[in-house]
Amino acid sequence: MTPIRRQYLKIKEAYRDSIVLFRMGDFYETFDDDARLVASELDITLTGRSLGKNLRVPMAGVPAHSVDSYLARLVKKGHQVAICEQLSDPAQSKGLVDRDVVRVVTPGTVFEDSLLDQQANNYLAAMVAEGDTVGLAYADITTGEFAAAQMSFSQLPLELARISPAEVIVAQSALSGWESAEALDSREVNFSLTATDDTSFETKTATENLLGYFRIQTLESFGCENLPLAVSAAGAIVEYLERTRPITRPNDQTESQALKRIRLNNLAIYSTQQYMALDNRTRKNLELLQGGKGEQKELSLIASIDRTKTVMGARLLRRWIGQPLLELEALQRRLDAVDGFHADGLARNRVASTLSTVPDLERIIGRVVAGTVAPRELVALKTGLEAIPELRNSLDGFGFELQWLQAGLVPCPEVVDVIEAAIEPEPSGGVGDGNVVRSGFSTEIDELKNASANARQYIASLEQKERERTGIRSLRVGYNQVFGYYIEVSKSQANGLPDDYIRRQTLTHAERYIVPELKEYESLVLNARERLAEAEEATYRRVCEQVAQSAATVLRASAAVAEIDVFAGLAQAAVDNGYVRPVVDNDTTIRIRDGRHPVVERVLPSGQYVPNDVELSSESRVLVLTGPNMAGKSTYIRQVALITLMAQVGSFVPASEAHIGLVDRIFTRVGLQDDLATGQSTFMVEMVETAAILNQATPRSLVILDEIGRGTSTYDGLSIARSVIEHIHNSPRLGCKTLFATHYHELTELASTLPGVRNFSVAVAEEGSDVVFLHRIVPGGADRSYGVHVARLAGLPQGVVNRAWEVLTDLESEGRAPVQRRARGTGRSGTSGEASQQLPLFAAGPSLVDSIRELDVANMTPLEALNKLYELQEQANSLL
Questions:
Q1: CA distance 577 to 655
Q2: Hey, how many other C-beta atoms are within 10 angstroms of the C-beta on 555?
Q3: d(CA 490, CA 365)
């Protein structure tokens, strides 16, 4: 076995659960099973290499310069990757190059900018349970955000859906339990589940990890001393990060700068009672972050209201949308801030212009601390920090209500000054090339640059000098890494060269020489280049260390910038879309005038959206909404939920007036979906989701139900739908504000027996056989769904549509429909109170003569004619 093979196996033994990327020159190589896995996952060639006597080892490698793209693909597939670097210079190493793992990349510890969604956080979470109580902590190592909470087990799925972690760590002994837990149902959340040592979650160990990291004596300052499970989860994250990559402790600059590090902010303890919980189904049904069949961001709520100018603001808005407020004071402060920007267009535009120059301060300062920041990012950091005083001054004109934002806008002149003095305004190349540190900042670097430049200038002039001395016009001076600088002449002119020409290399058509003077200057150039690289790298590192000392101040400023960006953006969205400030209080009423769906309104041509009112209160807490398909029932009930959510985020809303009594939860049950993987039909999924709503809703909840009971027979579905409404209305634990869209027109009877139920329908205008959907919600129930009209609009074959009309007419004329309806062009018949029957497939119809008379022979195909003839024959036989 070769020495490099033994070195690899020793490292792999320590990282058996990771794919080890082993640096060998310009490539990262993998071996054995890692190589087979990588070749398969990345679709690259599996090769082999002899690494001992009769030992040929499978290999698969990727170029070091493009490793990020391959790393991203492996991490997205849920793999852990250990990066094993060369820690000594191969050119100066005697024997085997020193190598070791510098970090382990997992889905939750990705740090590279190219692997991250710039407008979303990338969270690493940890959870631990004891009985019905769960401790949950999460951190974003790219921004330093660090938070923890203790909650009931039933709240865990909602929190996981909210933070959407990339990776969750749990104790090894609890792994199987978590894998089978309902909280980790794949329909709710999607993340990589990682097991780690049980000791990481022990309260004593976790506490010591947190105290040691923050260098404090007690956790009381964080407010978690009485939350042992929250402490356990937070401490486990710190230990996991220390194992996967070294952590920089606050104000600690003594650790090796060669290692990549991260920095976490102070631990924020929060309560789930502060925010409205949203389950994953509600997030999807309301299309908060993605919408449409392709789950496109362009068709989502966030796309309709996001006018942020910075990625920090975009990330914050995303968090706010997923976490509406329940605290009235904090909510009013947000609305006041948006109102301030909304009222002053000039100031709002001035702030937006300034914000557009601010880069991602959070992640740049994170890379500064980690020692991975690029020179151009340092310059961008300086530009962003220079905007802080201007933003602070811009808030002066808004009045008292926005002054609280100024507290976080602390200027960092020391950071601006050191970057201005040390770094070139437009650095080029990498650190060490001599084009990063600004001239005049370091005397040593300036002298090395001059020495190198003088030597290079001499070498450049040497070519002309030697041409004149030898008379060979084709002579040239060149350089390669093997022989250094040389003088090259063709073989035909190699005779009669000066005596000081020393042959170094013979080519097919040329000879290469050196002269003592050339080697002397080559030594100057190469020595100066090497010393320049060392000096510039050391200087750049010192500058980064100095900037890193102000990381806490920069992060505080970046948080304030993000809030200002969101407030100004929400104000701009309100101006662009005609939104108004909602009245939000602790009342139990939701009253909206001229409400609009923020997404649908945006995609329709201007002026085509029809606004509607709604009022939900203790007297009218259940609205039964009937009407045709495609008339806007689903849009209407969702827009009420979206307006309520927007108000509790702190946004203005699409309406002419809105009064929102704080809602503790929004529940939605809409759409058709099944879960074939678990054997659940569409109707079963519908019932499971309905059951969850009935079990979790409170009197302060807002419930959106669309077509409950449609996945089964008419009698079953109608019975379930009616009992659901009665339960919501009558249960003292519920009584929640509910919008119930349905095609079961019989449900309109409930308004006469249940005092809190009101009937509404979608207005329709009929012109002969044509129907016009007015999209206007009006009081009263509907008695018809116009399904056949919709089928015709959808493009069903005319023969199918005609036959549908025949069957519908037959059913209505015999009174066998669930409720008496109008035929085309006829008046209202029957009453909603008449008895319903289970529908047969076919009913006895008109006479044969009438059936033949109604045939549209001119438009029938031969096949349709034969089928119709067969039906008439069967009808005649049934009469015998």
A1: 10
A2: 21
A3: 56
Average confidence (pLDDT) over 302-329: 95
pLDDT at 828 > cutoff 80? no
Positive or negative, the Cα torsion across 559, 562, 563, 564?
A: positive
Distance between CA 556 and CA 551 in Å, rounded? 9
Beta-bridge partner residues of 216: none
Instruction: Give the span between the Cα atoms of 601 and 441, in whole angstroms.
Output: 57
User: According to the model, what pLDDT value does residue 515 have?
Assistant: 86
Distance CA 631, CA 608 (A): 14
Give the sheet arrangement for strand 47-50, strand by strand: 47-50, 56-63, 27-31, 19-24, 81-86, 99-105
Are the CB atoms for 103 and 58 separated by under 8 Å? no
Question: Residue 136 to residues 192, 662, 664: CA-CA distances in angstroms?
Answer: 16, 26, 21
The whole-angstrom separation of Cα 655 and Cα 434 is 59
Residues ≥6 apart with Cβ < 8 Å to 770: none
Exposure string (b/e) for 167-187, b if CB count within 10 Å is 16 or more?
bbbbbeebeeebeebebbeee
Q: What is the pLDDT of residues 700-758, one digit of tens each?
A: 999 999 988 877 777 788 889 999 999 999 888 888 999 999 988 889 999 999 999 99
Our separate counts of H helices and E strands in the chain read 27, 26
> Rounded CA gap, 253 and 345, in Å?
46
Helix, strand, coil in percent for the chain, rounding step 5: 45, 20, 35
- 217-250 pLDDT, tens digit per residue, is 888 888 888 899 999 999 999 999 988 875 444 4
- If one compares 860 and 580, the residue with the highest pLDDT of the two is 580
Confidence of residue 400 (pLDDT cuts 50, 70, 90): low
Give strand pairing partners of 658. Answer: 592
Look up residue 157 and give its two tokens: 């799925």
595 in helix, strand or coil?
strand
CA distance linking residue 433 with residue 123, whole number of Å: 36
For residue 151, give the 3-state DSSP assignment.
strand
Q: Which residues contact 829 (CB under 8 A, 6 or more apart)?
A: 812, 820, 821, 822
- Least confident interval from 52-56, 496-500, 520-524: 520-524
User: For the chain, how big is the Rg over CA atoms in Å?
Assistant: 36
Beta bridge partners of 48: 58
Q: How far apart are CA 449 and CA 847, in angstroms?
A: 105
Cα(521)–Cα(501) distance, integer angstroms: 16
Give 321's pLDDT tier (boundaries 50, 70, 90). very high
pLDDT mean across residues, the chain: 84
pLDDT of residue 261: 61
* Rounded mean pLDDT, 145-164: 91
pLDDT category, 572, cuts 50, 70, 90? very high
Burial of 552 (0-12, 13-18, 19+ CB in 10 A): middle
pLDDT band at 204 (very low <50, low <70, confident <90, very high): very high
CA–CA gap between residue 362 and residue 360 (Å, rounded): 6
The tokens describing 450, both together, are: 């001059």
State which amino acid sits at residue 570. L
* 3-state DSSP assignment of residue 377: helix
- Least confident range from 757-771, 778-792, 863-877: namely 863-877
In sequence order, the β-bridge partners of residue 339 are none
Q: How confident is the model over 446-458, as a mean pLDDT?
A: 76
Nearest to 302 by CA among 596, 635, 602: 602
**What is the distance between the alpha carbons of residues 162 and 147, in angstroms, rounded to a whole number?**
13
Length, in residues, of the chain:
880
Smallest CA-to-CA distance from 123 within 151, 71, 159 is with: 159
Distance, in Å, from the CA atom of 342 to the CA atom of 580, rounded to the nearest integer, reads 10
Q: Are 127 and 230 in contact (CB under 8 A)?
A: no
Q: Name the percent of the chain lying above pLDDT 90.
A: 42
